[in-house]
Prior knowledge:
By secondary structure, this protein is α/β, with parallel strands linked by helices. It has helices spanning about 85-90, 125-135, 155-165, 180-185, 200-210, 255-260, 300-305; strands at about 10-20, 20-30, 40-50, 55-60, 70-75, 95-100, 115-120, 140-150, 170, 195-200, 220-225, 235-240, 245-250, 280-290, 305-310, 315-320.
Amino acid sequence: MKTAQIWTEARVHALREITPTVREITLKPTNGALPHQAGGHLQLQVLVNQGAVARPHTRSYSLIGQPDGTFYRFAVKRLDEGRGGSKAMWQLAVGDRLQISEPQNHFPLDLAAPAYLLVAGGIGVTPLVGMAQLLAQLGAKVQMLFGARSEAELAYLKPLQAVLKDGLKTAIAEKGEYLNFESEIAQLPPKALMYVCGPVPMLDAARRAWTKAGRPLADLRYETFGSSGRFAPQAFRVKIPRHNLDITVPADNGLLDELEMAGVQAMYDCRRGECGLCAMDVLAVDGEIDHRDVFLSDEEKASNKRICVCVSRVVGEITLDSAYRADA
Ligand code: FES
């Protein structure tokens, strides 16, 4: 359950392979593209196959580059173990139509800082491309760290090199390279901002280095994606006694989607494990919760009393109470 979303139609205008596992999709909205800010994203409705049935799901993708008034561009990583949304997006062909939201932004770029450190992990580079371009255009002091599994997976490397020049440093995991947060953070002036987008373990490492350097957490801005858990996705059982519900969440779909399909009204906003709005009370767990959010603290995660149902999963079985509201 989310505040009313206005959906409009868009057509797939072009498809482009950016890396072996990342495809860029250009959409042409029927009524023209609205301006979007650096860090902004679109929500899309995709049909995901579940058994013999295709069900609509909402997915969120960062918009790439600067607005041009005609097109929206975003990139989708093919996740073989994902929730099915990426597979559905990879099946899109030029001319296909789909429903999209207006551009939104949960990761706004503050233009008043004396310097910026952008940190990208893999497909997390997407919101940072537009940020790097805008900051370079404005003559801001900007550095970027970009980590990927292999050289071929450094998406948008050329446009980033074009604007950042020597300010871009890459690290390739399969070569044993790593992002040196400490040394980059040490070179930043006071009040500099760090923008991070990538998997949760990378964000955790960046956050540790940031706080160790004595920097205020308010100056660390991040967006993440909940696809990186400790366990490969597998089916798990969910019971909600309040609703007399007993369902199985399949390996290729998320808990929030399944709850909604079962008629459970769950609150949510970001669907990326950041805002905490979807957190539910855990009554019992037989197995392990794979917490994939960045909202709950380490202590809360260890206590297993709440779960962010938009991204987190379970190995085993869980019993939830859907009535919990964090701010009630
Ligand atoms: S909807 Fe924001 S954390 Fe789940």
